Amino acid sequence: MNISGGEALVRSLINNGIDTIFGLPGAQIYPLFDALQRHSDRIRTIVPRHEQGAAYMAFGYAKSSGRPSAYTVVPGPGVLNTTAALCTAWGCNTPVLCLTGQVPSAFLGSGRGHLHEIPDQLATLQSLTKWARRINDVKAAPTLVNEAFLVMQSGRPGPAVLEMCWDTMAQTSDVEIIPGISVPEPAEPDPDQIARAVTRLSTAKRPMIMTGNGAQHAAAEVLVLAGLLNAPVTAFRSGRGVVAEDHPLGVSSVAAYDLWRDTDVIIGIGSRLELQYMRWGSMNQWLRRPEAPFLIRIDIDPAEMYRLVPGIAIIADARKATAQLVEKLASSGTAPVRTRDEIAVAKSGARARIEKIQPQMAYLDVIREVLPRDGFFVEELCQIGFTSYFGFPVYRPRTYVTPGFQGTLGFGFQTALGVKIANPDKAVVSVTGDGGFMFGVQELATCAQYNIGVVTLVFNNQSFGNVRRDQENQFDNRVIGADFNNPDFMKLADSFGIEGRRVSSPAELKPVLAHAIESGAPVLIEVVIEKGSEISPWEFIHPAVS
Ligand SMILES: Cc1ncc(C[n+]2csc(CCOP(=O)(O)OP(=O)(O)O)c2C)c(N)n1
Fold first, then answer.
1. Ligand 1 pocket check: which of 82, 363, 441, 464 to mutate, most ligand atoms within 8 Å of Cβ?
2. pLDDT of the residue at 544
3. C-alpha–C-alpha distance, residues 405 and 237, integer Å
4. DSSP label at 261?
5. Assessment of whether the complete model's pTM goes beyond 0.85
6. CB-defined site of ligand 1, < 6 Å
């Protein structure tokens, strides 16, 4: 088939199941956009108002659905505008494909100063992702796109990049279009590793399970394992929702901290165990070989076993390995002594202790009450978001959307748009501070243009509240760079053609939020908060330091 480089890319995306692409056009990638125009019956193009939005939306799409996503932007400044989202996708093991252009091939590496030239784009992007390649020949496009999809979804998932020179993308060539890839089944776990873990677990008295992002597809298996061991299951951020927190064995990180004291075996499943060994230990010292409790890790990434060395390492897919543990433990028997009552006491005690984090807890309670169990909650780096780590119960896998350890301020609202596009029939609530929201405020236009029904709660405390509190506490009240003036959010919403509502108490929020979710339309809700009035949530996130 005689087609352009851009067309070969688009056909290959479609063959790999991509139904939506987020992108912002420019000269180098015109042929790709032209192909998107001509294939718009098979692939939808969402155009944000800033390139960062394209990448955050692709991140939200992939993270909430578990399916790969794609975005496209011009090279140089365009692709650099997306790097905060790209490193977030890397940190969160999320399969996001970035397609970008390059200077004309004759100018590669010339330093001549062609449009959007940067010193070494491929090396820059390689350093932020799992895999990055240039497509030098149109004929190679389908194979390289397939390879990108394979890399993104095998082993530890992650983002990938393909760049194509300006002239290559425009050139036509006789290209063989091939079917998309199907991801091969992960290898079977090593039976010796499973046998060792079963021996240790069959005598475990008070085991605990910690889930991470790598366990999101293993919810059914994890729940059975937890049942056999009577083990509380906890998570910090990315592993939340694997076991519902209203299940007797699903516990928040605060309840888990209580139960940690007499835990004799910890099983980390698809998790870096930041909670146990950094948050509950030291953020400044790298503990490589923890002693008690006995650590068993299931992780598909062998490198993880050197970063945090367990007593027993099971290098395998979370679902496969957990299923095998379940099968073998069911016949060998288990000996747990921790009772469900003990766990229930820890849960109610934790809930009572966190009650003082106001007004955040009162707002989170309202949101939890109104948001359906399968609705999505997109957090942010703000007082309500930090409190949600432990104060907002999550009931379903993937429904708690977080930037994980990147802590990417401003990701939330923009990411939520991608979440909604991937899950059009589900409610999506984005909670954000006024500081973080303004990082991506221009996407209100995208929200209105495509009628993306995200409900956004902006907690307006007229400041980078977290910074402000840190400066008061750690720098003797010397506040700098933390206070600001906001626009009138109601006029702002109105000018973008979006419904705006302002509330100043949890009781006021409840009917407004219920109506907003019910409407299915985009709604911006401003929550008025007195500056400096929020109680710090940090003692529950970092209890060893507080
Ligand atoms: C990309 C990025 N820049 C800066 C920060 C540092 N930071 C963390 S929280 C915060 C303040 C957030 O303010 P706001 O969104 O208004 O929420 P609030 O704390 O007031 O609730 C800042 C600047 C960050 N985490 N990420």
1. 464
2. 75
3. 9
4. T
5. yes
6. 381-383, 407-409, 433-436, 459, 461, 463-467
